[in-house]
Amino acid sequence: EAGLTQQQVSDKLNVPRRTVGHWAQSRRTRRPGASRSGRPLKLDKHDIRRLIARIHSSWEGRKLSWRKLARDCGLDVCGQTIKNHLEAVGYHRCKACKKPFISKKAQEDRVLYAEEHGDKPKEYWRVHMYADECHFNTAERGTVYVTRKSHERYHPQC
Length: 158
Fold this sequence. Notes:
It is a single chain. By secondary structure, the protein is mainly alpha-helical. It has two domains: 1-38, no CATH class; 42-135 and 144-158, no CATH class. It contains eight helices and two strands; from the N terminus they run ααααααβααβ. A two-stranded antiparallel ribbon has the order 1-2. Helix 1 crosses helix 2 (17-25) and helix 5 (66-72) crosses helix 6 (79-88). It is elongated.
């Protein structure tokens, strides 16, 4: 429309010439969502941000089921709707890690211990007895699921 050739538009916009050709042949508008058909989404971006903020707020927020998360954020939608919208932005539900990631202090203590005792002979280690932690719980016997992204596996809240 401005009197430029496709090659000139391609050079100005730094896109391939064929892309400009496809734009010229296309009859629909380039505005996102302008020609969208179908049922409107139940949740907008602000609702999704509110859900994500609730998930990141605490351990309790991560443990909430999809339905309880919706209710907690004041949304009148079913759990499957929450699941679909959050999975679209990368969140999923999975089992909580059995043992939490060790703290920075514990990491430093382990490195220090290894440096101090790394050169001991095998006989030294045969004499010592080590026991792992043991935890007894009388509540919440079921499997705990948390909401997280795949890269958040070792996050302290997961």
